[in-house]
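Ops channel
N.P.: pipeline sanity check, posting one input/output pair.
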């Protein structure tokens, strides 16, 4: 990866610097993902307490501050305030101490990654695009049958869950892409499909065995079938309920569990995931007020992805959070609504710029995230849709931000995330564009 970076002593840090690398592994810190701006003195003090030196990204730092005095001994005075040395050698946690700290926590990350091999995105996208439509039809049929008091086709549900798992194991970005492109639809079945995609992708990242991934996918796909038995007016305003209406709405969990038990062809694990997916780590959830490790890991995953789906796709789109703000929101809820490690692993797995997100580059061009870079989440593959003047591009090209050498001292970087619909870019345009893009094109003059 070609990154224009510079090593900086922590006592020379100042507000506005973009930290791209630490002198220790990111996973040993409380930071949720690699790369962040120093916003204030508290950020600097926190970083100074765990590191001796860091690396700043020159290109992103220059967007916020004048770095002409970077090598000056008075660098720390750039903000007008001197920073007292607050360095303390980072504490190295022994295996015994780490084990003790995690004694009462669910262990998330498996030691061995089960799903290392991937099929190219463009190949899997064609498959996933066709599968998504079939899964949508199945999910819609399930809710209609439940609403009418009839049994639904269990075989179709199992098949839909299985093909999603297989596709996401091959390449998670294809279905994640589609979940973004379909996010404007807030009907219950579409919400369930998107949450299922997030759940499988997260479970894949955690190296859950395929059987567990399949059970998780079935559970999340069916988690909200009880809502089909609720008054429609409650569902229409489900994002803002209180009092008696909220109590009635929350019965959807027990209704779902009862329906599946009557059918009698689902495992106890699937039933428990559905029964607990609205519980919260701090005990504030429903219906049983379970807390911490009393909520099984798959149910915690289900609860987190369903919550993420909700905050990014409110029925009133003006209240929805884009991917980056949603991750910031989740991070504030760690060890509150959700287990800290679970939140941090989810952010690492999805990234602050998930596949399908619209972003702006430092070249002022508008692009869509095509595929994640597993080692450098801030440098994914993108497809340019609008030029620097925000006009539609004539030739669609995909570029890998992690492979670029600096052009005239500048490397392509993401500087902002944008909601779908910005500059007239909708899901249909994106799907057509990805199918026509020149995937072998090498960007040479974009930043010249």
């Amino acid at each position: 990866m070609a990154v224009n970076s510079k090593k900086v002593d922590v006592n020379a840090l100042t507000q506005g610097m973009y930290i791209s690398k630490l002198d220790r592994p990111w996973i040993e810190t409380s930071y949720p993902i690699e790369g962040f701006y120093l916003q204030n003195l508290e950020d600097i003090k926190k970083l100074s307490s765990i590191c001796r030196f860091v690396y700043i990204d020159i290109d992103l730092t220059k967007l916020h501050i004048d770095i002409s005095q970077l090598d000056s001994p008075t660098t720390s005075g750039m903000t007008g305030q001197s920073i007292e040395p607050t360095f303390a050698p980072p504490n190295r946690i022994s295996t015994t101490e780490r084990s003790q700290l995690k004694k009462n926590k669910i262990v998330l990350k498996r030691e061995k990654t089960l799903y290392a091999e991937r099929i190219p995105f463009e190949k899997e996208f064609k498959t996933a695009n066709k599968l998504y439509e079939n899964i949508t039809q199945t999910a819609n049929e399930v809710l209609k049958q439940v609403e009418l008091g009839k049994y639904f086709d269990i075989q179709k549900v199992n098949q839909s869950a299985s093909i999603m798992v297989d596709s996401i194991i091959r390449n998670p970005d294809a279905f994640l892409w589609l979940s973004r492109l379909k996010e404007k639809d807030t009907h219950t079945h579409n919400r369930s499909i998107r949450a299922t995609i997030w759940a499988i992708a997260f479970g894949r990242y955690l190296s859950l065995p395929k059987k567990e991934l399949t059970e998780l996918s079935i559970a999340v796909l069916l988690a909200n079938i009880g809502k089909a038995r609720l008054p429609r007016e409650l569902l229409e305003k489900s994002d803002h309920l209180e009092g008696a209406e909220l109590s009635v709405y929350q019965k959807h969990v027990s209704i779902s569990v009862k329906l599946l038990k009557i059918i009698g062809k689902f495992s106890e694990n699937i039933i428990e995931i559905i029964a607990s997916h609205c519980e919260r780590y701090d005990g504030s959830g429903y219906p049983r007020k379970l807390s911490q490790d009393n909520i099984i890991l798959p149910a915690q995953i289900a609860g987190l992805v369903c919550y993420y789906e909700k905050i990014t796709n409110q029925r009133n789109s003006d209240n929805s959070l884009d991917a980056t703000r949603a991750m910031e929101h989740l991070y504030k809820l760690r060890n509150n609504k959700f287990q800290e490690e679970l939140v941090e692993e989810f952010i690492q797995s999805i990234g602050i710029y998930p596949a399908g997100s619209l972003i702006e580059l430092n070249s002022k061009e508008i692009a869509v995230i095509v595929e994640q870079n597993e080692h450098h989440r801030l440098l994914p593959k993108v497809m340019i849709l609008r030029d620097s003047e925000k006009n539609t591009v004539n030739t669609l090209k995909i570029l890998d931000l992690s492979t670029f050498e600096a052009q005239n001292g500048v490397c392509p970087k993401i500087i902002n995330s944008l909601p779908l619909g910005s500059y007239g870019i909708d899901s249909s345009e994106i799907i057509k564009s990805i199918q026509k893009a020149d995937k072998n094109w090498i960007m040479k003059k974009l930043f010249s």
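N.P.: looks fine end to end. The two ends are 19 Å apart (CA to CA).
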